[in-house]
Amino acid sequence: MTLTFPTEEQLKALQQAVNLSEIEALGRARLDQNALDYYASGANDGHTHRANREDFSRIRLRPRMLMDVSDVQTGTSVLGLPLDFPVGIAPSAFHGLAHPDAELATARAAAGLGSVMTLSTFSNTPIEDVARAAAGRLWFQLYLYKDREVSAGLVRRAEAAGARALVLTVDTPFVGRREANERHRFNLPPHLQVPNAGSREALAGLETQSGSQLVRHFQGLVDPSLSWRDLDWLKSLSGLPIILKGILTAEDAELAVQHGCHVWVSNHGGRQLDTAVSTIAALPEIADAVAGRMEIYLDGGVSRGTDVLKALALGARAVFLGRPALWGLAAGGEDGVRRVLELLKGEVRLALALSGKQSLGQVGRDLLKM
Ligand SMILES: Cc1cc2nc3c(=O)[nH]c(=O)nc-3n(C[C@H](O)[C@H](O)[C@H](O)COP(=O)(O)O)c2cc1C
Ligand SMILES: O=C(O)C(=O)c1ccccc1
């Protein structure tokens, strides 16, 4: 007997989940140790991973009353692309660890909800296939390769496939130390391909000190010499806007703007430099530095509608989900990711209304008790 996935029972559990944390529990239960370690880990002691969530919950709101919230609008746009609500999918590697439909399922869910998906360089599905599934709602995340021609090829493919922006990840010259992956020697199951990142065979001979195949794979390909000087070259490759993902300071935000780049505030979900500042705590100085000249996005620890409003109040234009999308994918493929987005959209709408706002344009720092 072949089981279709998700099964009726899993679909029912998804529909009954009332928040993202219940979907996380469903997703975790479907994953083996190898995948679970990879998705869940933060770097080292996990301080930054936890701080992303904790620092959101510490901020208190100042709701206004008697504002006629009978008609609340959650729509916005990112780089001109209209979004039904200010939430997109952050890039994460290897969606095939969560579900056989992998990135196609995530892209379909994002497109269906009027969101946007950022496709990782390390996807298990080729850019072109994901672009079709995403129906124009696609950004492409880039790791700069030692072999610049491989990166150039990826940029050209992403642009030709219809991606609307390049997201250059700047916080990962080396992979952070996710100790569970070292302990259990993370390994990419042999049936999964990484079609944008060079063949597995080409990498088989590479060795490092690490027990994790992930680190070995990454370090063989990605160039730790990436610097501000590379941005002009990257810009020359395509007409796409460039977003720098992993900015945590006003200094780097200023440099990003000087280089004509948009700013994605991220600490990689606490997976890189442990004890780095939480993203919501980093956002105010970055918003002050950027001063409206470029768009600002944020990820890390977003799991409630009120988290979304807090990030917008402090200057983000939209926020992105890393692990929550993966938990949804594991819990029920496209249906699971859709459920995550639907729940969060409902929470954003209700939080807006209860804050006395009719639209996102009315969300400013005066919503927060700092
Ligand atoms: C399993 C996993 C894989 C990731 N892979 C990538 C990646 O390939 N490229 C990238 O720029 N960021 C990657 N990230 C970081 C996410 O884009 C994002 O910054 C982070 O997950 C946001 O935090 P959250 O998980 O708390 O939402 C990954 C994160 C996770 C959890
Ligand atoms: O795991 C990650 O966070 C990540 O960005 C990554 C992606 C591919 C290979 C190694 C690390």
Q: Could you give the distance between the termini? A: 57 Å
- Judging from the principal axes of the Cα atoms, what is the shape? globular
**CATH homologous superfamily (4th level) name:** Aldolase class I
- Largest sheet, if any? 8 strands, parallel
Order of helices and strands: HHHHEEEEHEHEHEHHHHEHEHEHEHE
* Number of structural domains: 1
Strand order of the largest sheet: 4-11-10-9-8-7-6-5
Ligands, deduplicated? flavin mononucleotide, benzoyl-formic acid
Q: Segments where pLDDT lies below 50 for 5+ residues?
A: none
**Number of strand elements:** 12
Strand content: 5-15%
Helix count equals: 15
Binding site for glyoxylate: 38, 143, 178, 268, 271
GO molecular function, one term: oxidoreductase activity
Cofactor: FMN
Pfam family, one: FMN_dh
